[in-house]
Amino acid sequence: MKKRKTKTDEIRWPKKYRCAVILGFDFDAESDEMRTAPDKLVPITKGKYGATVGLDRIFNVLDDFSIPATFFVPGWVAENYGEKVKEIQSKGFEIAGHAYLHEKVSELSVEDEKRVLEKCISRIRQVTGADPKGYRAPWFDLRSNSLNLLAEFGFEYDSSLMNQDLPYFIKSSPAGKLLVELPVDWCLDDWPAFEMDRKSTKMVHETWQSEFDALYSAGSLFNLTMHPECIGRPARIEMLRGFIQYMQSKHNVWFASAGEVSKWWRSTHSEDRPVEFSFSGSRGKEP
Ligand SMILES: [Zn+2]
């Protein structure tokens, strides 16, 4: 009997790659604290740890494995850690946007959200010479109108939503421009696991590995969200090192930046039906 063709058999990734892996680092430093509690020294120093010790450890790991990564940078961080952002750029990693002062979009008026995006883009441009093409909302906090604004401001992709395991298109209004969405999930985010649930490196490694195994066998996208002040702790960075080694031991894993995955998806899946969000609410219509 002829085997029925499943979605997994379709060519989704370049060459013979079976699944795609994005290592994303939200380079927040102390931007959130500068907005909410500029005199709270403990969280501020934790943010600074990320921008110095943590970031350098991440560079070492990425250099050792020669793999790409994407850094999501708030405009304030570009302004205040310009040399670090330049270093990210000089190492060939992608720089994407992440608001200005790590704002929660649900707390902003539409006008303020616009101003935040403008500042995010301009501060990154001042340091890197280029507008960011990708965006991740702090706290994964996004509303339907944010998608319109991202399209309006020239972004190619977003990476904050959770509809699917694979990338998909979002139709923004009113221009109808298609944004590529690179979906995330809380279980593939280091922050809740380590900083909220206080899980051990062993437990987090186990969660990430089982998610990776399942997504690998489905031929899907493994999109990991990390923060330098969190994953940059000594034991956690060693866990990440071991985990990358594990992923590399599998055949045909495509390690790519978020921008590369978005570009590939746009050029090969343009006929996919986009998800349309209701612009008066948050319900998404599945394709
Ligand atoms: Zn963040």
What compounds sit in this structure? zinc ion
Largest sheet: 6 strands, mixed
Helices, by number, come to 11
**Which structural class is indicated by helix and strand composition?**
alpha/beta
% residues in beta strands: 5-15%
Oligomer: single chain
- N→C terminal distance: 31 Å
Order of helices and strands: EHHEHHEHEHEEEHHEHHEHEE
**Judging from the principal axes of the Cα atoms, what is the shape?**
globular
DSSP strand tally? 11
Please mark out the parts with pLDDT under 50 across 5 or more consecutive residues, or reply none: 1-6, 281-287
Give the strand order, joined by hyphens, for the main sheet. 4-5-7-6-10-11
Helix-residue proportion? 40-55%
| CA-atom Rg in angstroms | 18 Å
What's the overall average pLDDT, rounded? 92
